[in-house]
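Private note to self, pasted from the team thread so I don't lose it. Backbone tokens:
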């Protein structure tokens, strides 16, 4: 008998500790008020929620009559409903402090819920389509966001259908939002961490901590803006959505992240572009682009194009491009590297490497290419699989030569010829 009493007491004690440990505002309660004074209603809410409520009596209308029936609402929702606009809460352990909110821009808050299950949706992205201010719902599905007085709010989450609601001057601050589960998105679901790690370069990982990973996954479509200015990633006019925004004109005082650029982007230190770029991109130190370049990249240290280069790269130290299109070229103080495609020209102080050159490849030390149609000139060494044109260097090497080799030693196939070979 004594043992049973001890076990029951222990369970009650543990349950009470768990209740106290949980966030006061997220505790679920059910209430029923009919013409109840606000003061009495607040007492009932605190009793139902198992917490102490503290406030200055002058900030509420104690005699205000409340008529409300709720079933399994959070303390936060219930308080918002009975108090109305203009209040804020601060929880400390099992105590809740009620204060008058300071005047500020319109702010909405509430919960995002899955109506089919009744569960709250965590890690959903909620953003103002005009200002691009955004936030992510917490583990309880709760969000808070500053918005324009008249705007549209977009809510998006991987595995769920995108939702848009309109906000006007008359709209209540408390907005309960429902999101429908999307089975098509579920079939396309992928491993978030693996995808991000595969697409992020070492340079961008420096900024990974400043980027909202859930926003990067939840917001699938690109957003367009004519102009943006930023100091650092997330510290700019596009806020946390910067990696999803394609800009016409972009100014990054130090460094910035974007989804793409169409005309001009300038960065004091560097530019990080997750999509395509057309026009001109200038970085004091570097430009990192994961898509296609149609235009010119100019970097104090280096430029990188993750896919195809249609234009030119000019780097103080080096340039990297996955693929070169006809008519494209690279100029660098040290080296250029093009994995695939056909380059019109490559000029480097030390090394050039390309799949194919149709034009001119010149380096202070070494040139390497699979095929050359034109001129390959280096102070020390030129290497190509097939040459149709001229190789000029101290040492020249090619398997097939349709043209001329000029150097101290020239190798063509299995032949080694001094000075001239044709």
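Design output:
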């Amino acid at each position: 008998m004594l043992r049973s009493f001890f076990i029951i007491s222990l369970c009650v004690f543990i349950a009470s500790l768990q209740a106290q440990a949980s966030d006061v505002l997220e505790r679920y309660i059910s209430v029923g008020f009919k013409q109840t004074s606000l003061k009495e209603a607040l007492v009932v809410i605190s009793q139902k929620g198992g917490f102490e409520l503290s406030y200055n009596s002058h900030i509420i209308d104690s005699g205000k009559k409340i008529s409300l029936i709720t079933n399994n609402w959070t303390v936060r929702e219930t308080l918002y409903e009975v108090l109305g606009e203009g209040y804020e809460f601060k929880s400390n352990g099992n105590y809740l402090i009620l204060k008058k909110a300071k005047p500020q821009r319109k702010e909405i808050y509430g919960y995002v819920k899955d109506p089919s299950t009744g569960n709250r949706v965590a890690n959903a992205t909620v953003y103002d389509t005009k200002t691009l201010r955004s936030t992510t719902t917490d583990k309880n599905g709760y969000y808070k966001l500053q918005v324009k007085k008249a705007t549209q709010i977009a809510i998006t989450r991987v595995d769920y259908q995108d939702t848009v609601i309109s906000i006007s001057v008359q709209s209540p601050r408390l907005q309960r939002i429902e999101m429908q589960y999307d089975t098509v998105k579920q079939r396309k679901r992928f491993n978030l961490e693996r995808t991000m790690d595969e697409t992020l370069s070492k340079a961008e990982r420096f900024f990974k901590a400043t980027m909202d990973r859930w926003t990067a996954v939840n917001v699938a479509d690109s957003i367009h803006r004519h102009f943006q200015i930023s100091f650092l990633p997330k510290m700019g006019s596009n806020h946390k959505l910067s990696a999803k925004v394609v800009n016409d004109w972009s100014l990054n005082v130090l460094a910035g992240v974007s989804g793409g650029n169409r005309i001009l982007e300038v960065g004091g230190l560097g530019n990080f572009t997750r999509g395509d770029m057309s026009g001109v991109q200038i970085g004091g130190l570097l430009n990192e682009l994961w898509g296609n370049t149609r235009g010119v990249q100019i970097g104090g240290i280096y430029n990188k194009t993750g896919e195809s280069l249609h234009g030119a790269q000019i780097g103080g130290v080096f340039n990297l491009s996955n693929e070169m299109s006809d008519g494209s070229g690279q100029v660098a103080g040290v080296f250029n590297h093009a994995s695939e495609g056909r380059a019109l020209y490559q000029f480097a102080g030390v090394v050039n490497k390309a799949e194919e050159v149709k034009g001119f490849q010149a380096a202070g030390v070494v040139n390497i290419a699979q095929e050359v149609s034109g001129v390959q000139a280096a102070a020390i060494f030129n290497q190509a699989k097939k040459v149709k044109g001229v190789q000029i260097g101290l040492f020249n090497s090619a398997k097939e030569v349709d043209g001329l080799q000029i150097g101290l030693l020239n190798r063509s196939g299995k032949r080694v010829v001094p000075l001239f070979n044709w």
